[in-house]
Amino acid sequence: MISAPGNKILQTARLAIQAEAQALEQLALSIGPTFIEVTQTIARMVGGRVILSGIGKSGHIARKIAATFSSTGTPALYIHPTEASHGDLGMIGHQDVVLVLSKSGESQELSDIVNYCRRHGITLVAVTAVAQSSLGKMASHVLLIPNCPEAQPLGIAPTTSTVMSLALGDALALAVLEIRDFQVANFREFHPGGKLGRKLMRVRDIMHAGDELPIMCLGESLGKAVLEMTRTRFGCVGVVDDGQALVGIFTDGDLRRHFSASAINQRVDELMTRRPKEISPDALVSDVAHLFSIKRIPSVFVTENGCPVGIVHVHDLLGGSFL
What we know:
Blueprint: H1 6-30, H2 33-43, E1 50-54, H3 57-71, E2 76-78, H4 81-84, E3 97-101, H5 111-120, E4 123-128, H6 134-138, E5 141-144, H7 160-179, H8 184-189, H9 194-199, E6 215-217, H10 222-232, E7 236-240, E8 246-251, H11 252-258, E9 273-274, E10 278-279, H12 285-295, E11 299-304, E12 307-313, H13 314-319
Parallel strand pairs: 1-2, 1-3, 3-4, 4-5, 6-7, 10-11
Antiparallel strand pairs: 7-8, 8-9, 11-12
């Protein structure tokens, strides 16, 4: 078994990370007008997709970039260059934008997809370190990555080049996202699963409504409030006026503070908290979690035009792992 001193291992790891970080700094400074042109071209697509392709490590990066585009509202897919040569070229349409990744720009496997785009007038964007490469000369646009050395100790394994290609793809996807005014609520449509998807759900998706809603009218007694809180088990009751607008909230904490033998017949509006916190049914669940955190309240009424349509309790968030 071959071993190396721990300090040597850490030194190699840190040098590799530093080399990649320096390459990313150069990349950030290098993007300019061509990047803007490509971003605008993708944003203007109508009925088209971003087609990604690359071979080897560049292919793996291209797959990830395609996934990033798709998750941020820009239809995208990865086509393997070998499969493209055996029929998948038919998946590329005239309205598409094709991004091909190759550091050298000379990968022979890419020639068929490149020639197809050139022959049919399909927008081809080269992501390469060599502008005068075969790929660069055939492309409609060339996004140059700085020709930095790969990370040591060997300096030949794709490292800095793949990191820059990945970062450039992410930058493109996010720039297109901004042009299209893609919002966090839209993001949830593409991420319904997992903890992220749950945080991006709407309040209307988790609120309790209908018969579960603890509501009473102004002028009713404290005793009625106790019965309503017991029935619904949210530890509170919302108080509405004649127009059904939410004007107050009475909680089990209020009950403990005001309870006495004579208080049972008092009107609830004499004891309630006025102007309670409200939230819209179209708000995100993450907004409810933030509200509960900063206001230290266990529940909030969901209102539309001032009228209660639902209620959310902190347990609703805990049960769905929204926090």
